[in-house]
Structures are given as C-alpha cells and as structure tokens.
Amino acid sequence: MTFKSEIATLTGKTSYFILNKFFNGGSSYPGKIAYKIDPDILKSLGKDYDLIVVTGTNGKTLTTSLINKMLVQKYNDVLTNPTGSNMIQGIVTSFVTHHKTSKKPLAVLEVDEANVPIICKYITPKYFVLTNIFRDQMDRYGEIYTTYQKILDGIKMAPDATIIANGDAAIFSSKELPNKVIYYGFSDKGHENEDFKAPTNTDGVLCPKCNHIMHYHMISYANLGSYFCPNCGFKRNDLKYQVTNISTLLPNKTEFEIDGNKFQMNIGGKYNIYNALAAYAIASEMGITTEQMQKAFAYDEKVFGRQETINVDGKDVNIILVKNPVGLNQVIETVLSDKKPYSLAFLLNANYADGIDTSWIWDANFEDFDYDKLPLVITGGKRVKDVTYRFKIAGLDMNKNIETSEIENFVKEIPNIPTDRIYVLATYTAMLGLRKALSDKGYIK
Amino acid sequence: MANLIKIAYLYEDLMNTYGDSGDVKILSFLLKEQGYDTQVDNISLDMKFNAFDYDFLFFGGGQDFEQSVVATDIQRHRQTIKDYIEADKPMLCICGGYQFLGKYYETSGGQTIQCLDILPLHTIFKADSRMIGDTEYKTEWGTVKAFENHSGRTYFDDKNMLKPFGQMIEGYGNNPDDKQEGMRYKNVIGSYSHGPILKNENVARAIADKIIASHKERLASAAG
User: Fold this and answer.
1) Least CB-CB distance to A139: which of B14, B21, B132?
2) What's the pLDDT tens digit per position in A244-288?
3) CA-CA distance, A92 to A29, in Å (whole number)?
4) How confident is the model at residue B109 (pLDDT cuts 50, 70, 90)?
C-alpha cells in the first residue's frame, strides 16, 4: 500500500467511526473522502479479495443479499455492501470499514451499471452476475444498449472472469465474449410449440442479430423468456440452471423449484424468483449445498426498503420501492395476487435519485388494478399531480382518491384507511422520506 | 361502428420507451368522455398500412437502435403518410417520430439516416450535449409543461411552410438556438415533449376535437 493510500484509508476509517458512532449513518461519505485523497485507493484495498460483481437494472440488492447469505455459510470472511450504496464511494466505504480476518476474503458487491467499468479498473472480478437490463430512469442511464455497453466495458477488463447471466434476457447473448458464460432462466418445458410476440409496450424485442422482432415460446415477464427469431434462428442459449416449477406466488410467500429442488421465500414477486435463481447459480458454482441455500432463502430479514412491512397503529404498511415500468409492472402483478382487501398508495418524487423524468409511470400497467375493489388510493410525493392524473386516466374514481402533498400528511392518513393493509409504492427518495417519517414517530425502531 | 375511433400507433412495439404511450391513453380517456370508443392498432415492421383507414396517427419516441431499424421499414409508408398529412388529417409525432417527418437525421457518429422527407426539416444528433429537463412553452392553446430528453437538434429548412408549436419559457425545445419548441404544419404537430405532453389537457382536448372531426369526415366519405 502506498503512503497516499494509507492516509486515505486511515481518513476513511476515522470518518466512518465518527459518523457511525455519533451520527448513526455514513454509508458513502467515508469512501468519498478516501477516494478524494487517493483515487487509486480501491486497487490497494481490494487486491486480496475474490470479487463477485452483481449488476443489472432490477434485482441487484436482493440478489446480492441472497448470495451473501449463502456464501457466509461456507466462507468465513465475506464483505458486502448491503445498504444499496453501489457506486464507487459507497464501495470504497465497504472496503475501508471491512475488518479482514483471512488472507483471501470474498467480496460480493452490488454495483451500479455505470460504475462497473470504474470498479473493474481497480479490482478484477472473478464472477459477474447479470440480472437484467430494462429501460430505467432514462434521464440518467440512457438507453438499454448504452447501459449494457458500460457493463461490457468492465467485463472486457476481466476476460478470465465467469459470467453468470440471465439467459432469458436476449441482450446478454447479443455480443460474443471471450469469457466463460453460464446462463440461468425459466424452463419452457411444455411450451416448446407456442409462438407469440411480447405485448406492444415491451422494450428490447428486436433480434440483436438481424433486427427482426423476436417471438417467444414462453414469457416470464416483460421481455424475459424463451425467445427465438423466426427470421434468422437466433434463440435462447441452453440454460445450466432453471426454475422448473412455481407452486405459490403470493405477495409475502413464494414456493418454487430450481432444477427440481424445492425452495421457499417469504417475499412475493416472480422477479424475486429470478433473483433467487441468480443467487442459486453462483452459489452452485461456488460449492454451496442445497440445504445452505434453503436456509438463506428462508431468512426473514427484509431487505432495506425493498418489501418492508411496518405496523402503524394496527395497519400493515407494506412499502415497495418502484423506479421503472418493468419493475412497477411486476409489483402491480404481485399486489394483485393478494386476495384480502387492501388500500393503495403511490408516492412519486422526481429528485435526481428517483429520476427527474416521471413520464415512465405512463408505460406501466396502472390499468391492471381492480378499481372497483380498491377502496382507497392515496397519492403523494413532489409529483403528486402527475401520479393522481395517471390513476384517473387508468380508471380510478376520483372520489376514492386522497392527495397528500407532504410525507407527514400521508403518515397521518394511515390510521384512517378502511383496510388492514396498505401497499405503498414509492420512488427512492419518497421511500427514504417515508421511512424517516415513520422512524421519527417511532413506528420503525 | 359509428362511435369507434381508429388510431394508428406507428411502431408501438419499437418506439415505446419514453412514456409517450400516455398520450394515446389520455386521448382514449377524453374521447370516451365524449362518447367514443377507440381502437389502437400497432403498425410495425413488415405490416401493411393505409393511413386513410385511420382517424389519427401517433408516432412516439424510441431508443436509437430501434429508431434506426424503423427508419428503413417506414419508407414503405411514405406516400400514404404524406397524402394523409396533406389531406389535413391529424397526427402527433413526438421526439423520434417528429424527426422522421423530416429529410434526414445525422447520428453522432456522422452517419446520415434518411427519413420520410415529407416536411422540410432535418436533425443533427450531438450525443455529448443531450438536452434533458423540464420544459415550459407557450402555444396557441396556452402554456404547456413537459419534459425533454434528446440529443437530436431539429432545424426547419423552410420557415414559411413550418411554424413552431410553441415559444420557449424554460428548456431547449427544437435546438439550443431558436428558443422554439416543436412544429406545426396543417393538422400535424411535432414535438420533443415527453411527460407525456397530453397531460396538458388544453392541448389534449384540442387534438381530441381534431380527431373527432377527422372521424366524422372518414365516415362521411365512406358513406359517400
């Protein structure tokens, strides 16, 4: 380690200690300071680690968390960045504050797509786990092919790394790579003879080889599935790891089989089965047993803001982060699977971290909600007018709508809802604001 | 069916990533209020298309790759779209859809992509200076608030024939120089506004009225 790096590390550690002890926070600030003093700090900090990079549009946080829970059962020194601080500064913080207990520790990192090449410049990963690429906050990230190119720029620096990619996403088979690539996905057994196109509001449906519109034998959601091109014959790669059955799909419970092994999770959503499958794939490659995986899946800690249930004066408040149309559509599908009565809320902010463009809500399937059965929809956030209007156009009777401008006012409405449960769909900073408001009132300990 | 309005959504399955589908959803809602059902047809690669089967054409924004594929396919429909526009029929084109009405667009890599060459305008892409943010501008129907996100800079080649859709209050619009947003020619509107633009009900209602008139005219000529 160079002298500069040592100073940077020490400063980072000290600031983390102070922030953590006295201000109860500090997930990216220490890294910011250390990175500022020595931009190459990650090189010296990360040189002994075997690195697993988890990236993609949706599912990074949960996938990383599941992988971590699996690996710690076999490996005793695993670093991760569990709070979703997935850019360079946050990652530097994770390294600065990790207390190494072995010579060759593991690092399982959720990495923001655009930060993949930055991280790879300093540490060469052993594995890349790729979840999916969908249109996401286009004011920030740009288009899906640009996003994938950024990930590829990182992968190019690590030709010996193994790539574990979602085989149901055609984009991950669009470029030839020197790396070893392993694909996971949903089995299409029994659907081999089906032939159809994705719904018209699906993005990324052009064949990457010949530019015709792809067809499918089976779609799990959005553009993911068993795709094939009727024009040139391009088709889904053979899958090494497959979801072979889904028996239960409820908002708080999923039961499914991967390669015939039964698993259960206490969270909902088909998209989370993909996250489980991605974790299964890398864990299998690293020698984790089925029993260890089952244990990790059964673990009941909710991932920060990703599907949290908080009790507010007897009402179950289920907070779900939403940030792009594909993710939101999956959340809508999950909420709809709840057979008991519930109310709904949508908090839409347009800060930088949310995406300053809110037009994406129009590409999501708000029309699918059952507006006859929904007794109440509360709207809120800085762009409350926009989201209220979206609900109106989708068919919500405006007599069932309450608009709240401030998060505090929203919290005051919760005890008055006519159901035991409310699903709160919130963009990133709205979710943080809500958690803070609930915490200030003592609902979150 | 007398009260069924037909909308052609050009390349809905490819030009669909900037929330512009909201424009069609809002129009369907407003038309329903006035007693009209709507049928929205996706006109995509290799499909047959006669613009005069429709009361309204909509063309939204898409990603660069999809847009380049559409550029080749859409040439088949040049004549029918041109005749439709010249016949004073209504059309709304957003972002990429707007660029396609012109002669060509030039990519950031310097490649020239031929467009429909129906209206005298062209677009130059500058990938390193994208125009992103809220916009506000004045139009014939009042103020419009929207969101723009484009690297294409659009210029009119004939300023007598084409009129701007709005005068900028905030944001860029067509390009960084003219302080104007969008384009009007007969009953065609071209615009860089996402948001979607028709959440501005003043504009949405004006377009809905044009669509109803166009619908009545189509039925009358069919009966004719």
Assistant:
1) B132
2) 999 999 988 899 999 999 999 988 889 999 999 999 999 999 999
3) 10
4) confident
The catalytic residue positions of A are: 357
Domains of chain A: 1-186+238-296 (3.40.1190.10), 305-439 (3.90.190.20)
Cβ contacts of residue A188 below 8 Å, gap of 6+? A217, A218, A225, A226
**What angle, rounded to 10 degrees, do the helices at A29-37 and A88-97 form?**
90
pTM, whole model, 2 decimals?
0.90
Q: How far is CA A254 from CA A190, A257, A330, A435, in A?
A: 22, 10, 14, 26
Residue bearing tokens 């506000």: B136
Query: Which residue from A248, A441, A238, A214 is spatially nearest to A337, judged by alpha carbons?
Result: A248
**Are the C-beta atoms of residues B19 and B193 closer than 8 Å to each other?**
no
Q: In chain B, what are the domain boundaries?
A: 2-221
Q: What's the angle, vertex CA A158, arms to CA A157 and CA A163, rounded to 5?
A: 130
A143 to A149, A235, A386, B115: CA distances (angstroms)? 10, 23, 23, 21
- Residues A316-348: tens digit of each pLDDT: 999 999 999 999 999 999 999 999 999 999 999
Report the range of poorest mean pLDDT among A228-237, B107-116, B140-149. B107-116
Q: Do B65 and A386 touch (CB under 8 A)?
A: no
Test the A interface: residue of B16, B94, B130 with most A CBs within 10 Å: B16
Topology adopted by domain B2-221: Rossmann fold (3.40.50)
> And the tokens for B148?
């723009």
Picking from A380, A298, A385, A374, the residue whose alpha carbon sits closest to that of residue A332 is: A374
ipTM: 0.96
* Chain B contact for A210 (CB, 8 A cutoff): no
**Cβ contact, residue pair B147, A358, below 8 Å:** yes
Residue of A nearest to B44 (CA): A213
